[in-house]
Design a protein that fits this description.
Length: about 130
């Protein structure tokens, strides 16, 4: 590949911003990428910063997702236990309509939420 700015010279790399071939004379090494001297330096610095911020955010996002999966499982278990309490209370006291129905809704919601939480936690572990 030849240099975009000096077509008679061989390129040593490619600008991270515009993709042009650069010879030693027209390249600026910014540590994590080359840039066209005087033309693309600021843009390449911005790109490098963006990539570094995304890498840092990705690590935090994974941690947040793992914690969210755990919280979701515990809230599902809480719904099942609460619903079971209402069902038992309703049957024991003979208030089978409202209290038992509300408890059954809690149990059904908790089980559905638990199944969804387990699938979510398996996705997060991958």
């Amino acid at each position: 590949m030849k240099c975009y700015y000096a077509p008679s010279e061989d390129a040593i790399g490619v600008c991270k911003c515009c993709g042009r071939g650069l010879s030693h004379e027209f390249a600026v090494d910014l540590g994590k990428g080359l840039a066209c001297k005087g033309r693309c330096e600021e843009d390449v610095k911005a790109l490098i910063g963006l990539v570094e911020r995304n890498i840092a955010a990705s690590v935090r996002a994974d941690e947040i997702l793992r914690r969210s999966a755990g919280t979701s499982i515990w809230s599902s278990v809480f719904s099942v236990i609460t619903g079971s309490f209402f069902v038992g209370f309703g049957i024991y006291n003979g208030v089978e309509t409202f209290t038992t129905g509300m408890g059954a809704i809690f149990v059904i919601y908790g089980i559905a939420s638990l199944l969804r939480s387990r699938r979510f936690s398996q996705l997060v572990k991958r």
